[in-house]
Amino acid sequence: MRNGLMRTGLMRAGLMRDLLVAMLGLLVLLALPLVFPHPSLRDFLIYVIAYGLLAMSLNLLVGLTGLVSFGHAAYFASGAYVFGLLMQSGAVSVPLAMLAAVGGTALLALVIGAICVRLKEIYFSFITLAFQMFIHSIILTWVDLTGGDQGLRGGIPRPPFLGIDLGEAHTLYAFAAVIFVLCLLAMRQVWQSPFGYTLRMIRDNPARANFLGVDVVRMKLGIFVLAGGVASMAGIIMALFVSGAFPEFGFWTTSGEAIFMIMLGGTQVFLGPVLGAFLLQLLNHYVTIYTHHHGLVLGVVILLIVLGLRRGVADFAANWLAERRAAAPPAPAAPEPAKTKAAG
Amino acid sequence: MTRHTQAGPAATLGRRTLLGAAAAGAAMLARPHVAGAQAKVIRVGMPTILSGRVAILGTSSRTAVQYAFSRINEAGGLGGRSLELVERDSKGRPDEAAKVTRDLINNDGCELIIDGEASSGGFAVHEVIRDLPVLCIHTNSETSSLTADPKLHVKTAFRCARQGIHDAVAGGVYASAISKQRGLKRWMTCSPDYAYGRDNTAEFLEFIKKFDPSIEVVDQVWPRLFAPDYTENITKALQVRPQAMYSALWGGDLVSFIEQSNLYRIFGNITLFSSSLGDPPVLTAIKQLPPGLHTAYRYNRNYPDKPSNTAFADGFASLAKHEPTNWAWQNYVAAQFIAEALKRTNGRTEGAALAAELKGMALDSPLAVGDKLTLRDTDHTLIGYPTAWGRTVPKAPFVEGFVPVEWSQVLEMEAEWKQRKGYA
Amino acid sequence: MNLDVLAGCFASASCAVTQVSTGLIVGMLLFLVASGLSLIFGVLGVVNFAHGAFYMLGAYFAFLCFERTGSFVAALVAGAVGAGIVGVLFERFFMSKVYGRDLLMQLLVCYAAILIFDDLVKILFGAEYKLMGMPESFATAPVEIAGGFIPSYYIFMLGMSLGIGLLLWLGINRTRLGKVIRALAINPQMVGALGINTRLLYAGVFGLGCALAGTAGALAAPVRSLTPGMGLSVLIESFIVTVIGGMGSIPGALAAALLIGLTRAFGAIGFPLFVDGLMFALMGLVLILRPTGLFGARAA
């Protein structure tokens, strides 16, 4: 418990710093389109925000807890569809629909997670994939509600609320940026909290965690639901941006891309997945412009990163930095020794 | 792989790297399109599917527009300005289609859009056009509601493609004539299990029953879209023994279905009516095409029987190395409409100006069954294209004996349908 | 649900024969693909998510060979051997680099392979639909058995896949090499210590698994249309089969493939709308109740 108290103290100092960085990050995000007033930059950033958030939420499972989910896009889709359907019904305001979409998705994640987190390793991956495929086929077959393969048609209405009009592109962008930073801040607190450290212990040594009296299943379920909720927020942003929701949101390729993003960026540095989302979108953007052999180029890049760098870009950089610091003899205020563990 | 359980300094680094990278990327992206030759070139953007199972949709659409543009440019362009196509692969993802379309308009200086997306991607592009009102012609979406539903109407968006409801009426008229004449009472359907497959089949049945109330649907099977194997559906037909079958399967799925059905020789006893068999790449892929299958027109170099149509087929085939697809003619015609509209606006590309010209525009075209093809002013959709049905023969041109269905009849039935749907 | 019709089908010999054969036809080809997937997982401990791509490669190699030589036998061999060789190369140069690393790394390497192979096929063969064509000797009317009909090509296909499955089982359980491979799955260090080249064996097993997928592709090429990306739906189905049967178990793959095939065949008669949902549900149920699958070893 003494340990816990110490962490709380650390967290307070950390919280101040996180808040500061978050404010700074938000300012940069809001300023970028003012400095470079070009609509396609805004579109690009919204895309990075939505997919970055999806990747970040997936990394709560993969990087933090060691739960490799293959079916995370299910919650992205669920957020987009619940939000889109509620807005199209015309009965609720934007914030209420968002709340309901996140809440509904969290409930869905709770039910699915309760079954999934009991399974270990690759079987966890398989069953999350199975549930995602199931949800995808429900979206496809329940045509009356979801529009089937054609998605939610006719646009998603965005009535103004509290003087905020999301029909206006600048406002939509600013709104997405604020949500993004708030979600990151919340996830950062989880990442640094005792809960977060418990999850790392579950990842590295589940037997030890169990022995210390940690309710492993409940902890896993908790982070599963949280990750699902954040993923639904990403889905809502995407639905607002494209003014629709489509079954492809819940297809395995979307999960695959999210996995690629966190791998590209790095799983152990907190913001690694956002970097990955940014790099993948940048790559995507330029590759589709210059060649129609998009798959060939992307495939080669993936191979180069997996076999060359052997880890995400941010992880690679962090590692390199840590090694350099370790090499410099008397390190002032030595950071907590980096524990390493061979995965596999 | 090395895992750090400690995140502090690494996180700062991540943030710094990220912000730095973001700024660098932003600077790159924000560089606006340098339109040095803007005065000379009109750029037309095309989001479409160029990879995966339906890549041929995109590749044949692209080739058709390129062919049309090169002919226009060789003939001197439009008042000194030439047309250039900028196509992008959406990989079949609607959100990607939306983003790519916005990019084409905002970043690549495209002043018009030819939307080569299918189904869901088409609706996503439609919403972008609502936001960024440049002129857009949808060329590959056959879903009726895209233009028929007034709630979805977008002022600068048009459809230059065949439409589900037109095909349903034509199919009903044609098939009922045969069912009455040959006494085909017991029908079965075999269509892909997704919104288009189900709508298309329901509409066909609605109209054939209207014209021949004595038919009875004894069974309906719904194989998955892109299913590799149809044996269970085929042997089901062996058990049910219908006299006729309707199928909305298309593309590679239809190729597999026909070839697997051949093994059981089912088309000796069951008369097939297909919505999509008439597409040349499907016909040429099938090794043993059974004679006497009925199919809706998709494309044929001999119909409409005009020299300009044969010229189009030859020109397209010399570029694509295969016969034109249904998607090819739709995109070719869209390019013709765009060229004519630009001519009439003297090269002005504002969405509203072009839309005003395109509304109700009638155009000479290789594909017109009557005199002209028309973009109907009320709902911005194409009429006057071939809705004929024909029968298969084992050798090229594979489909013969096209029986046209009068457009007056199609339009009359369509109007009734719109009333029923609350669209009109 | 239409249980009366289903019961009626069981009562009539012709219907029962046709539907059972349908189940076998759907199931056995699935078994060929799934057995390769299962073999690779059982011995190497990796999930080859690019397995569908090797099915596609097998089909295209067979198509190419049949077009050039006109020989169906040569086409079958080309499909199997071609996919096998590409499989060995893929294992040596890429997959072997990520053994013992994160599951994510393996997934990504396979994802890259799918993207690259799909694009290469599109570049080399075009995006049009292709069909290999039926060899002359099979262009006959379907064979009638007790009032039911089975096309002669499908009889050949069933025989082939059954024969290959049997050979595979005999090879693994009755030969010395099979013994070594089984030992490799349990304790690779010990096998290596005995002076056996484990790297070669790994590559060989991976190649064999891919060759099985390639054979299935080649057998399917006369009756299923070839397009870039055609491996995806086959991958998903064979993945379901492998999970239900038990990752690593060849008899499990056979049982699950036949189960799925027969469910589809009789499901089409009795409960047409549930078949696909049923497959996912079955997979989920197996994972919950017995994650290692029906025939998998208890300790994973």
Keywords summarizing the entry:
heterotrimer, B: 424 residues, alpha/beta, Rossmann fold, seven-stranded mixed sheet, five-stranded parallel sheet, 14 helices, 15 strands, 46% helix, disordered N terminus, C: 300 residues, mainly alpha, ABC transporter involved in vitamin B12 uptake, BtuC, two-stranded antiparallel ribbon, 73% helix
What's this entry about, in short?
Chain B has 424 residues and is of the alpha/beta class. Helices cover 46% and strands 17% of the residues of chain B. Chain B starts with 7 loop residues before the first helix and ends with a helix.
Topology:
The complex is a heterotrimer of chains A (344), B (424) and C (300).
Chain A: H1 2-35, H2 39-65, H3 73-89, H4 94-116, H5 121-141, H6 143-146, H7 169-192, H8 194-204, H9 206-211, H10 216-242, H11 252-265, H12 272-290, H13 294-309, H14 313-327
Helix pairs in contact in A: 1-7, 2-7, 2-10, 2-11, 2-12, 3-4, 3-10, 4-10, 7-8, 7-10, 8-10, 11-12
Chain B: H1 8-30, E1 41-48, H2 55-74, E2 82-89, H3 94-106, E3 112-115, H4 119-131, E4 135-138, H5 145-148, E5 157-159, H6 164-182, E6 186-190, H7 195-211, E7 216-221, H8 231-240, E8 244-247, H9 251-264, E9 271-278, H10 280-285, E10 294-297, H11 307-320, H12 326-344, H13 351-358, E11 362-364, E12 372-375, E13 382-383, E14 389-392, E15 399-403, H14 407-421
Parallel strand pairs in B: 1-2, 1-3, 3-4, 4-5, 6-7, 6-8, 8-9, 9-10
Antiparallel strand pairs in B: 10-14, 11-12, 12-13, 14-15
Helix pairs in contact in B: 2-11, 2-12, 3-4, 6-7, 6-14, 12-13
Chain C: H1 3-11, H2 13-44, H3 51-69, H4 72-93, H5 103-125, E1 143-145, E2 148-150, H6 152-174, H7 176-186, H8 188-193, H9 198-220, H10 231-245, H11 250-270, H12 275-289
Antiparallel strand pairs in C: 1-2
